[in-house]
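Ops channel
N.P.: pipeline sanity check, posting one input/output pair.
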């Protein structure tokens, strides 16, 4: 919005608030200047005062900051791990004020098996290959842990590991994809048709297709269906935001998979199978092979392990046109790198070998993590690998932590299963197996998931036989139908709300609604009220952007935390805890995810806006090591002409009896005057009494300047603290573009 329009918008807002009529008085509001009776300029127009009413009659949520306000630690490079786990570094990280910590597992995003403990046993001990199970008995000190890229992967995307791509179009006749054996009848106890496995070819452009060739490995599929997609993008499972519809439009729900006329195979014999799918070519971009019955014949790894002869395996796939003379025109690009025709798969066999080790990235060792001090002496949230692991390995990991005596809060099952294109019924089947294995060794472990990736609302997926498209709803239904809903001790997701290259100031107004939509969706899908919702990883955007270090991020963080608890959330983890070097992001701007402006050696030169706001949230709005805080709804708002809430407020009653308000002024140009009343059950108003602490942080204290590796904040000042002597008729002025905390006693408030 350009400056003249902003001035006009402010004038309209004030006119509406004051109820003024047209004429000289109205003109004075529009221009932002007072006009005297003689027509002289009388100076700036006084700002209207907005009354905020705290409904103190009933708390809408309660939380303990030592369980509910935390940060995270993710995969790092080996040199960084060596640098950050020092007493001085840990002291810096904890100074941001966050309480508990959650350990993030990146190996599943890279399609790798995670050796949380390098000591353990292989199913094929002689060859150091197969399925690895870490040792549950403590021995030595686990300082580092690494991932092992899976050799039988079916998805082209590699999660940034740089250690291989999909095997189905890599051009190598000896490599193959294989599905996860733990999704077969041997382990689920259900018919394989209830967990169909699939492979998708993305031809990148629309092509005329009438034939498919599959070079089967063993076990091959006896029954399978070849389909094509009509719609927009079958691989974008998250609903797209729509201003008109709010929650968005599902690309899956608006498209469908269609069977080729001759695509149904019921007597597959393996080997090289060429299928003429239709007499006339069909125009499509995406081709899916859905497998429902296995040959159950042993594959290249032998017959000694049942996992080698269940599921499905494919060497290579070819798609194109079968000509009348019998020749096959293949439109698939077969290459061992990123130029290959992209493929996606429903699951991947966790089989691997010792030689697959990737030491480029380091998952902090369990012992180093728990003994370094980074856990803040609070129970930590720990992941277990699920998508590319075994139930026994996960159970041993949790048993190891118990034997060490480490304080374990929650166990997250897997990592971003939606981002790995896993169907809800498949994840649920694994969830049950892994939960059972963990609870056999550690009955008290509190397990949960699904750890959705960066969501703003419900996740949609291709319709099932009952036309259900809610991923989470179907996951819940599976747990219920298998009498395992009680295993779900919590539900977790990640929150990265905005596109890094499309962020505008107006996005800031959306955050409370995005949070509410997301949390409401879980409950609407049937999640019981007693199961807590946890945002276990969050940041403004999923890639670097100037907005991540601009004052914008401070306002977003305050609104994100406040709205999360207002709408029923239980635990909020802001990411990450450690410092990172500045790096270029969208549109050439330099930024960092972290709380610190640091150099390549991780030496801190400045604090970011996130750091200052985090400290205000954790030290001024709430207080750690004190117990339960109660959150109350605040009514009344300041709106712009478009209806955006320019001021949002979140009120808590702290264990010490003080009331604290977290106030966010999202108006970039104007301060706003507020009066604050507290209303008990009788509706009688009460007010702050005596001295009120006020802490403010905004654009007057901090402005980010992107200048490459020399980017910095200038000015760069901490929040401003002051004390106000409050009276019943008192008011407070929120500076433009700022986060403010007011804290004090309230007198005369009835129960």
């Amino acid at each position: 919005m350009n400056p003249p329009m902003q001035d006009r918008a402010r004038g309209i807002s004030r006119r509406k608030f004051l109820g003024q009529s047209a004429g000289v008085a109205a003109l004075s509001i529009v221009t932002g200047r007072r006009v005297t009776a003689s027509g002289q300029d009388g100076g700036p127009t006084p700002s209207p005062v907005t009354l905020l009413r705290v409904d103190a009659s009933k708390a809408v949520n309660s939380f303990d900051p030592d369980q509910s306000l935390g940060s995270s630690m993710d995969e790092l490079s080996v040199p960084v791990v060596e640098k950050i786990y020092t007493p001085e570094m840990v002291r810096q990280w904890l100074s941001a004020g966050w309480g508990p910590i959650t350990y993030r597992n990146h190996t599943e995003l890279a399609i790798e098996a995670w050796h949380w403990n390098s000591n353990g046993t292989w199913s094929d001990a002689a060859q150091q290959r197969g399925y690895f199970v870490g040792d549950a008995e403590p021995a030595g000190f686990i300082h580092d842990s690494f991932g092992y890229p899976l050799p039988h992967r079916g998805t082209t995307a590699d999660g940034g590991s740089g250690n291989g791509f999909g095997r189905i179009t890599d051009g190598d006749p000896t490599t193959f994809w294989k599905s996860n054996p733990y999704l077969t009848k041997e382990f689920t106890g259900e018919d394989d048709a209830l967990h169909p496995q699939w492979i998708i070819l993305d031809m990148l452009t629309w092509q005329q297709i009438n034939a498919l060739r599959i070079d089967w490995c063993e076990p091959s599929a006896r029954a399978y269906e070849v389909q094509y997609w009509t719609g927009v993008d079958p691989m974008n499972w998250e609903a797209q935001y729509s201003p008109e519809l709010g929650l968005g439009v599902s690309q899956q729900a608006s498209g469908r998979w269609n069977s080729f006329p001759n695509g149904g195979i019921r007597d597959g014999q393996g080997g090289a199978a060429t299928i003429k799918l239709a007499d006339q070519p069909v125009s499509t971009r995406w081709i899916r092979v859905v497998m429902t019955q296995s040959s159950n014949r042993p594959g290249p790894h032998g017959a000694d392990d049942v996992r080698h002869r269940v599921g499905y395996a494919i060497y290579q796939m070819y798609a194109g046109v079968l000509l009348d003379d019998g020749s096959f025109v293949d439109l698939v690009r077969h290459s061992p790198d990123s130029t290959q025709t992209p493929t996606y798969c429903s699951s991947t066999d966790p089989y691997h070998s010792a030689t697959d080790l990737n030491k480029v990235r380091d998952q902090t060792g369990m012992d180093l993590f728990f003994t370094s001090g980074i856990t803040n002496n609070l129970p930590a949230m720990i992941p277990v690998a699920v998508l590319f692991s075994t139930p026994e390995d996960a159970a041993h990991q949790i048993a190891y932590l118990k034997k060490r005596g480490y304080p374990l809060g929650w166990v997250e099952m897997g990592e971003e299963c939606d981002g790995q294109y896993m169907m809800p019924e498949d994840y649920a089947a694994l969830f049950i197996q892994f939960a059972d294995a963990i609870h056999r060794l550690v009955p008290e472990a509190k397990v949960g998931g699904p750890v959705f990736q960066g969501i703003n609302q419900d996740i949609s997926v291709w319709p099932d036989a009952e036309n259900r498209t809610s991923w989470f709803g179907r996951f819940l239904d599976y747990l219920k139908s298998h009498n395992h809903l009680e295993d779900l001790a919590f539900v977790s997701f990640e929150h990265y709300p905005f596109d890094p290259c499309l962020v505008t100031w107006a996005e800031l107004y959306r955050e409370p609604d995005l949070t509410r939509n997301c949390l409401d969706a879980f409950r609407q899908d049937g999640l019981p009220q007693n199961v807590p919702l946890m945002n276990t990883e969050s940041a403004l955007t999923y890639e670097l952007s100037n907005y991540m270090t601009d004052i914008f991020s401070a306002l977003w963080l305050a609104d994100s935390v406040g709205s999360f608890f207002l709408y029923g959330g239980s635990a909020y983890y802001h990411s990450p805890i450690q410092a990172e070097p500045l790096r270029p992001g969208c549109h050439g701007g330099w930024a960092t995810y972290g709380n610190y402006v640091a150099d390549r050696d991780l030496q801190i030169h400045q604090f970011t806006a996130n750091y200052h706001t985090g400290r205000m949230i954790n030290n001024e709005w709430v207080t750690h090591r004190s117990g339960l805080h109660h959150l109350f709804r605040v009514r009344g708002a300041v709106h712009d002409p478009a209806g955006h809430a320019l001021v949002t407020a979140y009120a808590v009653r702290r264990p010490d009896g003080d009331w604290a308000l977290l106030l966010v002024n999202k108006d970039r140009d104007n301060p706003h005057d507020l009066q604050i009343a507290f209303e008990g059950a009788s509706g009688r108003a009460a007010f702050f009494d005596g001295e009120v602490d006020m802490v403010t942080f905004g654009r007057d204290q901090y402005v980010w300047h992107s200048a490459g590796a020399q980017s910095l904040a200038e000015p760069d000042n901490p929040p401003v603290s002051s004390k106000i002597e409050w009276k019943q008729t008192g008011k407070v002025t929120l500076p433009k573009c700022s986060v403010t905390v007011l804290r004090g006693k309230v007198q005369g408030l009835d129960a």
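N.P.: looks fine end to end. Residues 439 and 445 are 7 Å apart (CA to CA).
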